[in-house]
Each structure stands twice: as structure tokens, then as C-alpha cells.
Amino acid sequence: MSSTADLLKQANELKSSKPAEAEKIYKRILQHTAGPSEPRTSNGERDQSLRDQETALVNLGELYRDNKNAEGLAEVITLSRSFMSSTAKAKTAKLIRTLLDFFTPIPDSAPTQIRVLKDNIEWAKNEKRIFLKQSLETRLAGIYLDTLQFKPALTLIDSLLTELRRLDDKMILTEVHLIESRVYRGTGNMPKAKAALTSARTAANSIYCPPHLQAALDLQSGVLHAEDKDYTTAYSYFFESFENMGNQGDEEGSLKALKYMLLCKVMLNLSEDVNLLLSIKLAAKYAQLREVESMRAVARAHQNRNLADFEKALRDYRDELSSDPTIRSHLAALYDTLLEQNLLRIVEPYSVVEVEYVAQQVGQGRQEVEAKLSQMILDKIFHGVLDQGRGCLLVYDEPEVDNSYGAAIDTLAQVGNVVDSLYAKTVKIA
Questions:
Q1: I need a labelling partner for 150 at 20 to 30 A (CA). Which of 97, 272, 380, 383 fits?
Q2: DSSP H helices in 230-273
Q3: Is residue 75 predicted with pLDDT exceeding 90?
Q4: Taking every annotated instance into account, which residue ranges of this chain make up the domain PCI (predicted)?
């Protein structure tokens, strides 16, 4: 057994009980070189040493991940470059992706990830490792999106797309167009978001699209259809994505798709279907999670048309409902609709009603209720006038449509047709 293998075994035994000692041993393994300068080292021993170093790199990365040490993980990725120079390019790309994935569970690690990615992109460019560079740039664009840095994300995507079209790499092209669609959706530019998604699907159709990428495309399609208020089509896309991610074991993605499916049911006024949906096999394991319970609370409030319960759900599940921009924006529209319905229910029996009384009944501030009533009158949701001097709302019956003028205009139109017909006959005789 080689010396690096002995050290690796020792470090693995200390990894849980004495992480500091294990860290030192892993670094010793990485500093050990088994290159051509060592005449007594056979090719077999050298290959084994490289394999041990690769294992040490991954284990040290796991150690820093478990200890939430983003800077230590960044150092591991930098240290790995000397090892990468001795390995195949495909293996290098896989290794660096594995190490970068360790950042995901570390909170507030985005700035460190961005710095590490920029540094490694420059290194890959200098080493002429084009595929690795493109892979890292795609990942960097995704982190810019997650941190809402839309402008640098679009700048990077534009340069990356130009390069990918020239190389005709359909797989990465699909991924980058998908990120582009999500970025444009984040900026509110829906036409460009749809165009980018169409480009992503076009590129995906010309290759074998991996299930996880297909699920991501379906999820984005559902989000864009939901933005257009086409919740029925959006639901079908979310369901496809949910099933696909569930079969792939992607629990985080499945949960997101399930929440969007529940949102669609609520927006379609089918709140009673929420419990039925949660009883299906793939969804049952998520039914007791707070993320799902938050949507169930919203569905109950919407079904009962209860504004107070709706607000309570928004307060009790603030983190679960506010962290996702898609759910946040649609629930804001739903709250607005629910407020309108409650205001209509309160003012309909009256011809004159005090604004203060209406505000008390819906549990809102007077100024907010007054502004909402004014908007509803302008939108002709109901007919009335706000008397701000008296602090009252005057509610009118819906005016009957007088068809007298309409009938007269129709008669004149018919007379015009008769005159035109007679004139045409006269021209023919002449």
C-alpha cells in the first residue's frame, strides 16, 4: 500500500472525531507529488497516488462543506489546479463541478463562489480549457441570477452565447438559454424571456435532453404561462416537471414544482383540490412540510374568502411564501382580488356607507380602503362615488343600458345599405 493511501486511510478515520487533524493530513497528501522526477516511482504507483490525491481533494472539500467553511473550500479548489494539470480534461471538469457543488449548503457563500469562479475561468482560459471555461461561465451566470445581479448575468450570457453558437454545443446552449429566460423574467421582460425559452427548447430538440434539464425547461414554461394567467397550461407543465424531478430524486426541485401546482389550483379557484392533490403518491411525502402547509393555509383562506385568515397565513409563513418571487407575485394579486371581493360583499347591501365602517369590517386602514374603493370605481367594478367631505361611499345601482340610440343607428345602417343597393342598380341600367 502506498504512503498516500496510508495517510488517506488515517485522515478518513479522523474526519468525524478530529476534523483539524484530518485537514492537516489531507493537505499533506495534496502536497505529495509522484511525478517523473521520482525515479523509484512506477507508473502504477504514480496512478494510485493521483487517485489518492483526487479522493483527498473531495474529502477535504466535504470537510469544509460540513464545517460551513467557504474560504477553506475556495482554497481547496485553488490547490486542485496542480493536480488537474496531470489529469484528463473531462475528469478535471467533473472534479471542479463536484467541489463547486459543496458551496451550495454553505450560507452566504455566493460572494466567495463568484470570486472563485472568476479566478478559475481566467485559469481555464490561460490553459486553453475551453469546455471547462464555458461550464464555469454558465455556473457563474446562474449565481448572478440567484443573487439578482441581472446586468452582469446578461453581459456574461451574451458573450457566452456568441461563443457557443460558433462551437455549436447544443447542451450548454440549452442551459444558457434557460438561464437567460430566467434572467429576463426576473427583470420583467416577458417577451425576451419567452424568446429565450423558445431558443432553449429548439436547441434541446436537436439533442438528447437529460431528464433534469427537461424538467427545468418544463418548470420555466409553467412559470411563464402563469405570468400570462394561463394557470391551466402552467399546471400541466408543473406536473410534468414534478414527476420528472421526483423520478430523478431531486427533492428540492420536486417541492418547488409541487408548490407551484398548489398555487395554480388556488389561482383557478379550485382550492378544494389542494388536499386531493397532496394525497397522490409522489406528493404525499411532502404533505407535512412547512412549505406545503403554507400553501394549504392560503388555499383554506381563499376558499373561505377570509381576508383575515389570508393575512394570518402570510404572517405565519412569511419565509416560505416570500422567499420565492413567483409565489410572492401571484399571492399579491390573489390578495388584491380577495380584498376586492370582501369590499364588494360589504358595500353591496348599502346605498350609503361610511368608509370607516368598511375599513373596520375588512380589518384594513381607512386610507388603504379608500384608495382601493376609488380604484374599483374607476375600473367600473361597481358604480358609486366617494364623498370625502362626509367620509362616505355612495353606491349606485348598475345603470340600465338604453338601446334606443343603438336601434336608431342600426335602422340608419339598413337604410344606407338599401340606398347603396339602389344606386348600384341605377349605375348598371345607365
A1: 97
A2: 231-248, 251-267
A3: no
A4: 227-400
Least confident of 74-88, 328-342, 412-426: 74-88
Per-residue DSSP letter, 118:
H
Q: Are 420 and 383 in contact (CB under 8 A)?
A: no
298 touches 331 (CB < 8 A): yes
Residue 93 is assigned to a structural domain of this protein: no
String of b and e for 111-150 (b: at least 16 CB within 10 Å)?
Answer: eebbebbeebbebbeeeebeebbbbbbbbbbbbbbeeebb
Task: Report the run of H or E that residue 22 belongs to, with start and end.
Answer: helix 19-31
What's the pLDDT score for residue 65?
83
Q: Are residues 333 and 365 in the same domain?
A: no
Burial class from Cβ neighbours inside 10 Å (0-12, 13-18, 19+) for residue 389 reads exposed
The beta strand positions in 108-257, using DSSP E, are none
- Examine the domain organization and report whether 288 and 362 are in the same domain: no
| 311 shares its domain with 357 | no
Report the CATH number at residue 362: 1.10.10.10
Question: What three-state secondary structure class fits 273?
Answer: helix
* Cβ contacts of 397 within 8 Å, gap of 6 or more: 383
Measured between alpha carbons, how far is 231 from 268 in angstroms, rounded to an integer? 7
pLDDT number for residue 178: 94
Q: Which residues of 26-41 are buried (b: 16+ CB within 10 A; e: fewer)?
A: bbebbeebbeeeeeeb
What pTM value is reported for the model? 0.76
148-203 pLDDT, tens digit per residue, is: 899 999 999 999 998 888 887 788 899 999 999 999 999 989 999 999 999 999 99
User: Same structural domain for residues 332 and 249?
Assistant: yes
Note whether 248 and 212 are within 8 A (CB).
Answer: yes
Backbone angles phi, psi at 386, to 5 degrees: -90, 120
Boundaries of domain holding 359: 350-399
Cell 493536480 sits on residue: 83
Residue 280 has what pLDDT?
A: 84
Q: Would 63 be classed as within a structural domain?
A: no
Number of domains in the chain: 3
